[in-house]
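Could you help me review a protein record that somebody else here produced? This is what I was given.
***
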Amino acid sequence: MILHPFLAEFIGTAILLLLGAGVVANVNLKKTIASGQTPWVLITSAWGFAVFVAVFVSAQSSGAHLNPAVTLGLAFAGKFSWSLVPSYFAAQLLGAMLGSWLAYIVYLDHYRATSDEGAVRSTFCTGPAIRNFKNNFFSEAIGTFMLVFGALFIVSPNISIVGSEVENFGLGALDALPIGIVVWVIGIALGGTTGYAINPARDFGPRLVYQLLPRKNKDADWAYSWIPILGPFTGGAAAGLLYSILQ
């Protein structure tokens, strides 16, 4: 068990991004073993399994939010202390940056062999299939709403953090699998419009890492970057508020 909840969030989110970004790199970069395989099946499956592994590792220490939108949604639902929200956000963002950087190091030779900068960027952050900010925002919001709303009904309080005002509503080991399945089905059913970030840290942290890479002609598409941040925050908050009304 990881003793400090913020360290657990950092490590769990790093694992999530290492495995999640890793599968996108595996199917999108040149000369990998999986290059040319059916990417959407591999990507959605691997992200779901990545969530399972990351949750399993961190759940008993932090509740395994691993996602600022989840943390925000739980706070709005009255299931998580607002005083812990900023620290969780910071841990999740830093963990996402570390995980995506580790995936980059693993596939470094393949990044060097790939000249398609759009393919390279896709291994770090999401982008829309059709660029329509209003619809892109809605897609991210509804996908995250389903994630948080589903999580609130699947899991129950399982740990207590010293200094928090409420018991930490998070994912125990048994609930790691159904949450992974929720992420999996969201990707298969709703992810085709924007690549389903459904997690501000998952998109913003790796986008920052990509911006810092020593690559020519890179374009992090900052004009779009607010969508996978504000969309998930909106969906997570709405899910938390609706849950609190229904209870």
